[in-house]
Amino acid sequence: MRAVLVDDEKLALNYLEKLLSGHGDFEIIGKYQNPDQAFEAIVRDKPDVVFLDIEMPGTNGIEMAERLERCLHNINIVFVTAYDEHAIKAFELNAIDYILKPAQRSRLIKTVQRLLDTHKDSETASPRARPVMIRCFQSLQIELPQSHQQPVMIRWRTSKAQELFAYLLHYRGQLVRKDALLELFWPETDWKKGFTQLYTTIYQVRKTLENTGADVHITSLDKGYRLDLNNVELDVQQWEEGINKALPITDNTLSEHLKLLNLYQGDYLADYDYLWAESERQRLREMWLRHALQVADYVASQGKHVEALALYQRIQLFHPHVEESYFMLMCLYDALGDRNSVELQYANLQEMLRSEFDVEPQQRIQLWYFDWKKKID
Question: Considering the domain 133-231, what is its CATH architecture?
Answer without folding.
Answer: Orthogonal Bundle (1.10)
